[in-house]
Amino acid sequence: MQEEEKQFFERADAHIDLSNGQISEEVGSEKVNASLMYATARFNAWVSARGWMNKQEMSEAKEETIEYFMAEYRRMLEANIDDYIANFDRYMHTGD
Predict the structure, then answer these.
(1) Do residues 36 and 15 touch, judged by C-beta distance below 8 A?
(2) HSE on the CB side for 57, CA within 13 Å?
(3) What is the pLDDT at residue 85?
(4) HSE-up (13 A, CA, CB side) for residue 2
(5) How far apart are CA 78 and CA 94, in angstroms?
(6) CA separation for the pair 40, 63 (Å, rounded)
(7) Which of 34, 69, 79, 94 is the most buried if burial means most Cβ atoms within 10 Å?
(8) What does the alpha-carbon distance between residue 42 and residue 7 come to, in Å, rounded to a whole number?
(9) Confidence class of residue 1 from pLDDT cuts 50, 70 and 90?
(10) What is the structure's pLDDT at 96?
(11) How confident is the model over 32-50, as pLDDT tens digits?
(12) Residues 30, 32: Cα–Cα separation, whole Å
């Protein structure tokens, strides 16, 4: 694994670890997931805004920007669901 790829997964794992640490009896995984999804959307909007000189440019690129983030998320979600399907017993400790 190249260093850049290793760092990518280390950053992702740090976000996952933070989210896992927020799960409790009072706050279930569904609520933590909703918060993380909101944070991701908020961060994506901020990253997008940094690429424009003004709100008009950002507004004109809105649909293209949304399509980009949606396509990337879908690709990543599909890859991770496929990984969980392939490794379900090991990841979920089912023993089957």
Answers:
(1) yes
(2) 7
(3) 98
(4) 3
(5) 22
(6) 18
(7) 69
(8) 22
(9) confident
(10) 61
(11) 999 999 999 999 999 999 9
(12) 6
By the 8 A CB rule, do 89 and 95 touch? Answer: yes
| Residues near 65 by beta carbon (within 8 Å), at least 6 away in sequence | 48, 58
3-class DSSP string for the chain = CCHHHHHHHHHHHHHHHHHHHHCCCCCCHHHHHHHHHHHHHHHHHHHHHHCCCCHHHHHHCHHHHHHHHHHHHHHHHHHHHHHHHHCHHHHHCCCC
Read off the pTM.
0.89
Q: Which two tokens stand for residue 45?
A: 């909007």
Task: For residue 15, give the amino acid letter.
Answer: H
Tokens 């009896």, located at residue: 25
